[in-house]
Amino acid sequence: MQNLIDLVDKKLNEYMPIVYPEDIFKAMKYTVTLPGKRLRPVMCLETVRMLGGDVEKALPTACAIEMLHAQSLIHDDLPCMDNDDFRRGKPSNHKVFGEANAVLAGDALLTFAPQLIIEKSELPAETTLKLVYEFTKWGGAYALIAGQVVDIQSEGGKLIKSPEETLNFIHLNKTGALFRLAMRSGTIIAGGSEKTLGEIDEFAKKFGLAFQIYDDIMDEISSFEELGKTAGKDKNCGKLTYVSLYGLEDAKNKFDSLMLDCYDIIKKYNSNIFTNIMKKLENRLLGV
Amino acid sequence: MQNLIDLVDKKLNEYMPIVYPEDIFKAMKYTVTLPGKRLRPVMCLETVRMLGGDVEKALPTACAIEMLHAQSLIHDDLPCMDNDDFRRGKPSNHKVFGEANAVLAGDALLTFAPQLIIEKSELPAETTLKLVYEFTKWGGAYALIAGQVVDIQSEGGKLIKSPEETLNFIHLNKTGALFRLAMRSGTIIAGGSEKTLGEIDEFAKKFGLAFQIYDDIMDEISSFEELGKTAGKDKNCGKLTYVSLYGLEDAKNKFDSLMLDCYDIIKKYNSNIFTNIMKKLENRLLGV
To answer: Does the predicted interface ipTM exceed a cut of 0.85?
Structure first.
């Protein structure tokens, strides 16, 4: 796993040269290269590997997905959004580069990332086009951004659907969209069948939901040092979370049940990496 | 020309259904469909027509370029950017939908637009991929956003290059990028040769520069009613413009000289539409 993280870090650095006007490239690169677990790119690469594809050819896409993730974090941290001064233990983008540059850095990543996929993938045009299509679909108003919008609405007390449906929608889209993008892209690069794509997608969807429940629980019980961002923020904002809606125990049960489903799907692919990631989450929640 | 504008308006409306969560789709659609001249999509469609291509197949791309333009306007108007309360005579996006939704609406348009090109163009994968590539390149940190960043730097008195070079860079990228994207995309859809692409690109570049000089002059001499946005804003901010740097007369001369070059390139394509657009600008500047 550390191998893949190092590979992604090396490539992220390589793919993002600082050219004129430096302010924008520095701002883009700052958040993208903050030390992190590189979960989404690793999920993409591991999907390619476990399906027998060429991991090398997946690197631009894996990095593009990390850039999309960073983009959502940069804009999420803005004062008009979640207003968070820290991210991964460091000052957030707008605290370092100013709000205007942070807005533009996020914007720039949204086109830089698919540009990278097109320029560097060395795959047939049909495959590349499919990858870019997945990127635009899961990164946009029908998925990732839909989740963010409903999240903001719910914070403002504006619920169009029931609290349960609303929370599910937020989680499926905010976290689930990028997980699905990562693993669907990996499947496409490896040339997986429609059936495989369906299975992998189902895993990513459930794992995304489980991961977000995990995140809700951690936000409830952790300190700033552990999280690298302001802790207990969700609770303080009166935000809709699995814990606020169902309580800690039911949230934990829901997490466990989703994890069982995930093991059930992933077992036939013999992936140590996915198994390890899942075990790590489970271990951290032991005793909660 | 009005035919093409109407066609673009009809398609923009058709391509943007309002679905759950409605807030984001309404915010996206609001700025995209504000009444306007649809200059960039018309330039794209007219390029296709004059090169003998299928205008119908260019509609998704033309509309995507208008969406990219709207995206840049939405984020440009934000309080942390140009802080403008009006756009095309109407309240700007964040005044209607709030800042958070305006940020997200801009983000969403950046992936919605290429998604539209991929979903609706009905062109060979190679061609569609080229179109998306142009979109990501001209819409991003190497072009449109580079222009915006240097614009912001120069407003803050931070000039890395000379004022003349800086202003040229801003104009070539802020306005030029979308003009070039529009006409290059049109050429690609029509199947134009590399030589044609080069000529068309040169026209778009020069016309973009001329258009921005025109805009600088108009901002200097017009009222709110005529512009549909706060007038004299550039002057009040001490912004670097052709007029502030070279004076009104030299700016006008530069405009005239660029227009001559543009006529020289476009004449062999027999385009009433381009000729009319150019004449309209010239007429408005008569007597300035």
So the answer is: yes
